[in-house]
């Protein structure tokens, strides 16, 4: 199951509340923020929402996330990074849910339109992705190539543009910082195996299996991003 989505922009509101707390001196430079669990209870939101808010503040340079230790205030930078535009930007979890719904249908249709060239292209991208799991930028490149190759099998230009645009929404400082905490060779290897299941269902002409394999892959991707930043330390009185 997908992690429950919060109302739009809620993670941005939480980031603003934490930022205001720091600016008011509620937490001094060098001090540790309350745990994810405590912040989630304080603001009445889910822990993934807190996690997204903390990533905003980390990219801005306001906090430092030390996996396995906690989250620490670093002060107010002279030139804070511009992380998000002033519109109703989608969160990574919204993007992954949208991809799950739409790319699941795309994979289903691709399984009805298999061609030798299409399968050969999927095989090639999988081989290159598997060889690139130690290099995040290359793994990401071939990951994108795999998903667009599936869409190409349908031959619909609008769907092709959609797949590229929604995938490229992760190419931002915010998403890159989130990925830096949760993606690595191990998760890329898991993604390769999930991609193989998608390829196999398409290759055998199994539309329902292809849809389910894509749904499973993108659900697992969201679950990986939903993990905690690490063991939250016990506070001393």
Automatic annotation (TrEMBL):
SUPFAM superfamilies: GntR ligand-binding domain-like, Winged helix' DNA-binding domain
Keywords on record: DNA-binding, Transcription, Transcription regulation
Protein name: GntR family transcriptional regulator
Lineage: Bacteria, Pseudomonadati, Pseudomonadota, Alphaproteobacteria, Hyphomicrobiales
Pfam family, any one: GntR
PANTHER family: TRANSCRIPTIONAL REGULATOR, GNTR FAMILY, UXU OPERON TRANSCRIPTIONAL REGULATOR
Transmembrane segments: none
MF-aspect GO terms: DNA binding; DNA-binding transcription factor activity
Stretches for region Disordered: 217-237
Domain HTH gntR-type: 8-76
Species this chain originates from: Neorhizobium alkalisoli
């Amino acid at each position: 199951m997908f992690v429950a989505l919060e109302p739009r922009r809620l993670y941005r509101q939480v980031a603003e509340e934490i930022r205001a707390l720091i600016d008011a001196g509620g937490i001094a430079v060098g001090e540790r923020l309350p745990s994810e669990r405590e912040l989630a209870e304080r603001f009445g939101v889910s822990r993934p929402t807190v996690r997204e808010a903390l990533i905003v503040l980390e990219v801005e340079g306001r906090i430092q996330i030390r996996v396995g230790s906690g989250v620490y205030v670093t002060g107010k930078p002279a030139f804070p990074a511009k992380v998000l535009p002033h519109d109703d930007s989608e969160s990574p979890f919204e993007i992954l849910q949208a991809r799950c719904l739409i790319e699941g249908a795309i994979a289903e249709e691709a399984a009805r339109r298999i061609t030798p060239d299409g399968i050969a292209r999927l095989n090639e991208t999988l081989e290159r992705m598997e060889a690139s799991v130690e290099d995040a930028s290359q793994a990401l490149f071939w990951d994108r190539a795999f998903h667009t190759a599936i869409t190409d099998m349908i031959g619909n230009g609008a769907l092709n543009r959609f797949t590229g645009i929604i995938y490229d929404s992760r190419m931002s400082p915010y998403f890159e910082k989130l990925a830096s905490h949760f993606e690595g060779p191990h998760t890329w290897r898991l993604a390769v195996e999930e991609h193989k299941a998608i390829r196999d269902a398409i290759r055998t002409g199994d539309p329902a299996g292809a849809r389910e394999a894509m749904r499973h892959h993108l659900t697992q991707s969201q679950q990986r991003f939903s993990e905690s930043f690490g063991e939250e330390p016990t506070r001393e009185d």
